[in-house]
Automatic annotation (TrEMBL):
Listed name of the protein: LysR substrate binding domain protein
Keyword Membrane (UniProt): no
Biological processes, Gene Ontology terms: DNA-templated transcription
Organism (species): Serratia odorifera DSM 4582
One Pfam short name: LysR_substrate
PANTHER family according to UniProt: HTH-TYPE TRANSCRIPTIONAL REGULATOR, IRON-REGULATED VIRULENCE REGULATORY PROTEIN IRGB
SUPFAM superfamilies in UniProt: Periplasmic binding protein-like II, Winged helix' DNA-binding domain
Highest taxon in the source lineage: Bacteria
Keywords of the record: DNA-binding, Repressor, Transcription, Transcription regulation
Database matches in PROSITE patterns: HTH_LYSR
Length: 327
C-alpha cells in the first residue's frame, strides 16, 4: 500500500501552490480595503485634493485608486463636475457598505492585537450631554485607566446619531427602546419625576392628577403630542394620564427642561438622577410623590455586525457593573 504524499500533497505544503493562492487572495483583499478607505475619504472630504491631504497621498494616487475601484466594480461611484463630487445611487449604497466593512476589519485587527497587548484601537461613544456628564464620562475615565492602549472618544449630542455613518462603536440611549437595526443591551433603569419650582407652585396648586393635567408643561421636543403616560396610583391602579393643555415650552435637551423648571416656567418630567440635586436643595418639588410614572431604561446600542469587537463588549460589561454599584 502506497503511503500518501507526492505532488498533490506538495501543493498544500508551506510554500506550495495552495498557500500561494491564499496569499494572493489576502493581498488582493488588502488592496481592496485600501481602496475602500480611499473611497470613503474622498466621500467625506468632498473632493480628491482634500482626501489626498487627509490620507497623506498625492491627488494622482487617490484619483487612480478610485478609477481602479470603479473599473473593478463595473459601476460609477462618483458623479464628477467642475465644482464638486457627488455620489451616484450605486455609490451611496457602496459607501454605506464600505463603512461597515472597514469597521469590521478594524475590529478584527483590534481583537488580534488585544491577545498580545490588551485592548487597543479607538472606542468611539456618544451619549446625551446630561447623562454623559452624570455617568458615561466618569465610567469612561475609570475604563481608560484599565486599558491605557485604548484611545477613547466621547461625543455629547442630544440628537440620535447614525452609528454607522458617524462611526460610533456604542451609543448610550435613554427611555424606551424603539425598533432599531442595531443591537441593544439594557444597562439599568431609572424613575422619571414630575417637578416644579416653589415659585410656580405658589401660583398654581397641584395635589391631584386632574390638576397636574391642567398644569403648564415643559416637555422634550422628542415626545409625541398630546402627552400621555400610564401612571400607577397609590392604590396600585394603572390609569392613563393625559395632559389636557398643549406644552407651554419645548426644548431639545434635559438640561434646558431643568433650567426652565428652576426658573418657575412650569412642570417638567425629569429623570430622577438629573432632578435629585435640585430636589435636595429645595429648588424643585416632586409633584404627587405617591404616584409612579413609567420607569425608563438605559441602553447601549452598537452596530449589528457579524463580529462584535472585544472593546465594545468589555465597555458595555464595565458600564453595567459601574451603574449597578452606583459609582
Amino acid at each position: 500500500m502506497q503511503c500518501s504524499g507526492g505532488k498533490a500533497a506538495d501543493k498544500s505544503a508551506p510554500g506550495g501552490y495552495t498557500v500561494k493562492i491564499i496569499l494572493t487572495v489576502i493581498e488582493d483583499s488588502m488592496l481592496n480595503l485600501q481602496r475602500l478607505a480611499i473611497f470613503v475619504a474622498v466621500v467625506e472630504a468632498g473632493n480628491f485634493t482634500a482626501a489626498a491631504n487627509t490620507l497623506g497621498q498625492s491627488k494622482a494616487v487617490v484619483s487612480f485608486n478610485i478609477k481602479q475601484l470603479e473599473s473593478e466594480l463595473g459601476v460609477s461611484l462618483l458623479a464628477r463636475s467642475t465644482r464638486k463630487l457627488s455620489l451616484t445611487d450605486a455609490g451611496e449604497r457602496f459607501y454605506q457598505r464600505s463603512l461597515r466593512l472597514l469597521q469590521e476589519a478594524e475590529n478584527v485587527l483590534d481583537d488580534v492585537r488585544r491577545d498580545h497587548h490588551g485592548l487597543s484601537g479607538t472606542l468611539r461613544i456618544t451619549s446625551t450631554p446630561e447623562y454623559g456628564a452624570h455617568a458615561v464620562v466618569p465610567a469612561l475615565a475609570a475604563f481608560a485607566q484599565l486599558h491605557p492602549r485604548l484611545r477613547i472618544q466621547h461625543v455629547s449630542s442630544s440628537q440620535h446619531a447614525d452609528l454607522i455613518a458617524e462611526r460610533f462603536d456604542v451609543a448610550i440611549r435613554l427611555g424606551r427602546m424603539a425598533d432599531s437595526n442595531h443591537r441593544a443591551a439594557r444597562l439599568d433603569d431609572f424613575a422619571i419625576l414630575p417637578v416644579a419650582s416653589p415659585d410656580y407652585l405658589a401660583r398654581q396648586q397641584i395635589v391631584s392628577l386632574a390638576q397636574l393635567a391642567q398644569a403648564q408643561w415643559i416637555v422634550h421636543s422628542r415626545l409625541a403630542s398630546p402627552l400621555s403616560w400610564q401612571v400607577v396610583t397609590p392604590q396600585r391602579q394603572a390609569v392613563l394620564f393625559d395632559v389636557e393643555t398643549p406644552a407651554a415650552l419645548t426644548a431639545d435637551s434635559a438640561t434646558a427642561l431643568l433650567a426652565f423648571a428652576l426658573h418657575g416656567a412650569g412642570v417638567a418630567l425629569l429623570p430622577d438622577w438629573l432632578a435629585r440635586p435640585a430636589l435636595q436643595r429645595g429648588q424643585l418639588c416632586q409633584l404627587l410623590p405617591d404616584h409612579r410614572f413609567p420607569t425608563q431604561s438605559i441602553y447601549a446600542l452598537y452596530p449589528n455586525t457579524r463580529h462584535v469587537p472585544e472593546k465594545v463588549r468589555a465597555f458595555i460589561d464595565f458600564l453595567r457593573s459601574w451603574l449597578a454599584k452606583g459609582e
